[in-house]
Write a structure and sequence with these properties.
The structure is a single chain. The protein is α/β, with parallel strands linked by helices and 154 residues long. Helix content is 50%, strand content 19%. It is built from 4 helices and 4 strands, in the order E-H-E-H-E-H-E-H. The termini are far apart. The mean pLDDT is 94.
Length: 154
């Protein structure tokens, strides 16, 4: 939820982590802002620039394929999905929102690899713009926290 109390985390040391980011180009103004906020937060929490791979894909439906390729390649502690799907006048919104989310989740579960899903699904551009920085930053923190948690469990 936008502006929600997310609690505090103690697993936010990214110094040893390797993170992959997949960014959709569709609604690129929003996704560029998501990526910038994500990258800034990763760096602020110690993830080294050389340990961040950032790729672009056409849209939200292509994000899971790139995530899967990264997971298959291996070497990542966590991945991040960035995109923006804005409701239009047709059912296409639901299809893209639901299928991209399901694909991201499937890759995470199939590869037992944390994936922070920051594919925004909003009613309009105003909502997307209001969320782009916070959700980009959140994605970075989720990726770091979950990578460290999975490492502790394993």
């Amino acid at each position: 939820m936008f502006g929600a109390d997310k609690g505090t985390a103690d697993r936010l040391d990214g110094k040893e982590l390797v993170i992959g980011i997949v960014q959709a180009r569709f609604n690129q103004g929003v996704t560029d802002a998501l990526a910038q906020a994500c990258l800034e937060a990763l760096r602020a929490h110690g993830v080294q620039e050389k340990n961040i791979d950032h790729v672009l894909v056409p849209g939200a439906l292509e994000v899971p394929v790139a995530l899967q390729a990264m997971a298959e390649k291996g070497g990542y502690d966590a991945l991040v999905a960035l995109g923006c799907v804005i409701r239009g006048e047709t059912y296409h919104f639901e299809l893209v929102a639901n299928e991209s989310a399901a694909g991201v989740t499937r890759v995470a579960l199939d590869y037992q690899l944390p994936i922070a899903n920051a594919i925004l699904t909003t009613e309009n551009m105003e909502q997307a713009l209001a969320r782009q920085v916070e959700k980009g930053r959140d994605a970075a923190l989720v990726a770091i926290e979950m990578a460290n948690l999975v490492d502790e469990i394993g």
